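sanity check this fold:
=====
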Amino acid sequence: MAKQGFKVTALSPYSYEELASGLGSSACGIDNADAKFKIATATAAGAVVTTNPQLIIDPAVNGDITVAPHGDGNINLNQTATGAIIAANTYGKAVGATTQTMIIDSTGKIGSSASPAGTVLSVTAGTGINLTGTAANPVVNLTIPVTVPFGGSGAITLTGILTGNGASPFTASTVTQYGTVIAGASNTVTSVTPSTTGFVLTSNGAGANPSYQSVSAGGATTSIQTTPATGTATPVAGVVKLAGGTTGLVFTAATDTVTTTFAGITANGGTVSMATDATVSTINVGTGAAAKTSTFGSASSTSATTVQSGTGALNVTSANGALTINSGTGTLSIGNDATAQSVNLATGAGAKTVTIGSTTTTSSLALKYGTSDFSMASATGTTMTALDSGEISFPLQPAFLAYMGTSDSNVTGNGTTYTLGSGNDLTEEYDQGSNFDHTSGVFTAPASGVYNFFAVVKISGITSAMTSYNANIVTTAVSYSTTGYPYGIASSANICSIQMTVTTQMTAGQTCYFTVQILNGAGNTADVISTGHGTYFCGYKVA
């Protein structure tokens, strides 16, 4: 050294103390002319430093300052009172392969609570920066807000969803619980509030946020689809497309009832199945209150339609309209399988008008039965039965037979007309339909048609003077008669038998009865007698 102002003390070979009077500069201390090392403790030699004591190590322009402890000793920078340890240079550099570089601005402070002034305080490390304290979890206190350049945030707290904004600080957007996150304008994030149960999130166009809406097939562009296991499902304007892939499409609701509205279901060469699983269910098609036109099956080519039922009923009902089943040129068969069954047509309690067969050209009708009887019935009862052997009965066809059980005496002989049944009551053998009055002997036609009548009377007391008789079957429209010589046909007991038959047309409500007249006798001495069934009147409807 050119000048000297310190000396080695006896305390340690590595300690210096200031001389009584310095050399060189006016500042008391060592003034190294080569600017390699300078220690200044006071502004004047020998002065007592009481204000702003300083220790300045000021190397040359590019000189290094090396502080090397002895052995395992430490390098301690200590200050007392309220002073600060200040780095005078704009940068500092440590030595060694594992050391770090700390860059501090010219006015930055370390260990001070004062805020750094000037530019940014930068700490640059290699593989990391270790902050170690004596506590298990040391606390690093940073003055807030801490600004992180190129995408940080100066917010104290952040709530919601963070959004990056490029080199600008990221921002947070709050959202509603259970809501659906929606991208907003300028990189903002919002959410759609949850809506009514069962509503779906629906697009409202490119310029508006989506919203929850009820599902409706009425929209012009409504389209709901799933992606199948193979292939794709493409929305079509005005069509709701549901594609379930190779495993099917499953509808599930809380009550296992799903209501859907379709303009049409197309199989496109495949099979359309409804309720083909093994679960008990109710299938309703076209059962709504509004007017429906339902078509099942196709008339194209060899198309076939099968409607079947198990042990339950298969009902086809029309409220007021016509129910028509046509087979074209094919055969229409009902109950033509080999199973024993009952086939009922128009058997309901309401009034029915039933027509079977056609009168067109060569149309034919065949009614067949096996070994059991064939029958026809009306509200009154059975109208016709036919045995398998061919016998036919008409249980309600008008028919009667009444005979004289008690004789009527002295009723004719000298021209008096006697009506059979006008005296004693006749006894009815049968009266099918109850159309004959046995107290008067008059039959009343219940229906228009052709009737056959037959009468037989036995008359006793015939004399030779009684030269003729007139017998009449009298209807409302016509009186049919026959004549003869009673005495000529009389037996040895003076009894003659007169009989007559006629087949006639009658209108419903018209009447018929039988009369006899014996002429030229001395008086009415002839009797109409009862001899078993010798005197009787009968009739029946032929057609």
